[in-house]
Amino acid sequence: MPDNSKSQQKTAEKDLSAQIAQAIRDAILSGDLVADDRLPSEAELSDTYGVSRPTVREALKRLAAQSLIRTKRGASGGAFVHRLSYPEAYSQLATTATLLLSLNEVDFATACRARFALERGCAPLSAQNRSVDHLAAMRAEITRQSQPGLSDEAFCASDVAFHRALVDGASNPVLSWHLAGAVEGMQPLMNMITFRNRDRAEIVALHIRITDALEARDAALIDQFLNALCTVTLRQAEASEALHAQKNSGAPI
Amino acid sequence: MPDNSKSQQKTAEKDLSAQIAQAIRDAILSGDLVADDRLPSEAELSDTYGVSRPTVREALKRLAAQSLIRTKRGASGGAFVHRLSYPEAYSQLATTATLLLSLNEVDFATACRARFALERGCAPLSAQNRSVDHLAAMRAEITRQSQPGLSDEAFCASDVAFHRALVDGASNPVLSWHLAGAVEGMQPLMNMITFRNRDRAEIVALHIRITDALEARDAALIDQFLNALCTVTLRQAEASEALHAQKNSGAPI
DNA sequence: TCCCCATAAATGTCAGACAATTAAATCGTG
DNA sequence: CACGATTTAATTGTCTGACATTTATGGGGA
């Protein structure tokens, strides 16, 4: 009764390697396979699923690309269920975020509002849990940002580091992970903005106020200044955009 | 001077397929390849990089697993740079989040605080942008949650839908993406909690208040109730944990 | 006892072939 | 000349078999 082979059904019309990868992925996500468990060897898997070894290997590479497994060569080697580390998770999130924003026509304002909304959510926890180290890190970045003649790139990097320290103040790695991804993913969009000296001064001034508010553990004040920072950033992006549009329409021909 | 082949350097000691995947990934992320661009055929790639076709295929499967490319068979087929859709990005984020939490010994409290911190960040935007549709969706979920005899699973699902509607109210797809991933990733941890009837009533009551506050566009009130909801959830998780611990220590033997 | 080396197991890589699919070119016919 | 059916070519999907490389393990010799 069950039509075994041909299957004009739409159940799983994908590649064999994709099907096998999905099967193993399900086993991992459901907990059937736990961290550091060893998967069967490629030869055994190809036997189990009735496919050739290259096909199994393609499936394993798919899983490796998602950091679900890691492989080791040699005797007692093989594929093992991988315990995802925070740096790896951070990197994956950043990649996904970058793609989502850059390939998907997300405008800067939307991404920017999202980023500041998330960051404002961190403020109360950060006010509660921040240590002097976080304050020191933020003030160090403020000093760097204040240097004249800093490249836009360096200014942006320092800005990221400042906000990262602010978020890390919440002492919640999951929160840091989300925010790091959001900020990192925005970098390509952020790099299209040109910060004039006057704009930088405005930003640095707000950074100082935010740091002071964090030192005083005043969440409401942080929230307010972050909001102001969001507004300022949006305004500058708009100005920068207008500048580019002008350059692109006026200069040529 | 540049030792070309053997390379005892640590520059790129990885697999060939990983190196090739990285090269193509960089080309995509840097914008050299844009959405819907066609990559060279597998034969051309294997020629370009001086490796065999199976190796190239493994590299392409890695990229396909990250939704960076999609492939099509037949003449004029090939690998194309893929425009990541929100549902795909959402699915990837959820997978990463689930792995990060479940395989990495993240305790429920940390994940829960992160989730509510992010959600509180959405509150102001949601209060500003929510439509009547969002309110209706939330009230519909409240009705469902209030039904007696609902399974824990169904209750959780409704809870997720409620919060999703709340976040969608911000009308910011990037924000929705982040929150959806955070909430979805927490599901396995959430499912370990048993909600007693009294607890459910408490949660539903807060949901009602949150919806009312959203209708009134009162961001501060939403924030306050979300905070309360976080506290309640944490308390219930603690109680549930204690219950499990008791079961695991008392029942056996 | 300790060190060196052969062995085996596993992944990494290659080469070549065939199957399946799909778009486009070709050809035949009205 | 136009239009539809057929052939063709290009490309991915899969298989087979082989060899290279890495690494733990065990045995033999100093």
TrEMBL record, chains A, B:
Keyword flag Glycoprotein: no
Keywords: DNA-binding, Transcription, Transcription regulation
Cited InterPro entries: GntR_C, TF_FadR/GntR_C, Tscrpt_reg_HTH_GntR, WH-like_DNA-bd_sf, WH_DNA-bd_sf
A Gene Ontology molecular function term of the record: DNA-binding transcription factor activity
Superkingdom, taxonomy of origin: Bacteria
Domain HTH gntR-type, chain residue ranges per copy: 14-84
The keyword Ubl conjugation belongs to this UniProt entry's keyword annotation: no
UniProt xrefs under Pfam families: FCD, GntR
PANTHER family attached to this UniProt entry: TRANSCRIPTIONAL REGULATOR, GNTR FAMILY, UXU OPERON TRANSCRIPTIONAL REGULATOR
Identification of the protein by name: Transcriptional regulator, GntR family
Upper taxonomic lineage: Bacteria, Pseudomonadati, Pseudomonadota, Alphaproteobacteria, Rhodobacterales
